[in-house]
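A student in our group prepared the protein record below, which I am reviewing. Here is the record exactly as it was handed to me.
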Amino acid sequence: MSTVQMSYAHILKTNRNAAIVHIVTACIVIYLYNHWPATQTRSTFEVFRSQIAGPDTITECSTSTIGPPTQCNSELAFQKPANVTSVNLIYGTIAFFLITAAAHIFYATDGFGSRAYTSNLAQGWNPFRWFEYAVSASIMSVLIGLADGVRDSSTLILLAGVTAAMQFNGFTVESLLRGKQKLSANAVTGIQGSTVSGWILFVILWSVLIYSFLTLKHDVDTLYSGETGPDNKPIQVPSWIIFVVLFQLVYYASFGIVQFKHIQKRLKGPYDYLSTESSYIWLSYFAKLSLGAGLSYGLLFRFKDC
């Protein structure tokens, strides 16, 4: 067996192992969720729609006795937010593990025997990954937002959309990097533009998430200053939320750094893409594992005895 064939065999085995650990992790979360029924209501967060117009109106009347008769001006009044739906964070956690596991099964079987996976690796890219990330990472962004206080449906849609768009910038960059030939000036320009665009989307995504977290912390510290909970401890933002936000910020940025290193090496000439593929596989798992662990601890373990 040639070195290249051994490398492909290794990456297929890595995907097989990744599929197994994703499935096992999902099964653990499912077991814990069903083992502690009392925690299940803690996992469901309500989502609302703000800025609902009418039917109430605000009416202002002039009481002046000088000039024309009294005139009244009416304008629409915005009512309190209305419930749109509810999202179960544990269901979302199980979903992104299983979606990623399905993708790894596809890779481990080399496209269910079609060699679609290794043939793309030979060209220096994996287009399927970005479609899987567009779904799984978008779910993750919504769950992070819900965990750190976002309840507005429009904002949650924004988080999902920005995350999906970010993945397709990655798709574009890898598409332009593939092959062994020297990159043209047009390809380099496209890579630069898509990379900058991807990082702009990253900044937008995390500006919203961090702002939501800081707003949550400010509100809790202000409204519950000096108060204690049933455990006689000060009321504050739970540490598991801080863990989720900080760790996911690092992991999301790490994906961009992996691709940035890929760009640097590819610009120097032909590049062995398999090391980059392996980095993505395990980075994806640990990003999902840390989010799943944070949400499971915050929503299941902490309330298991209720």
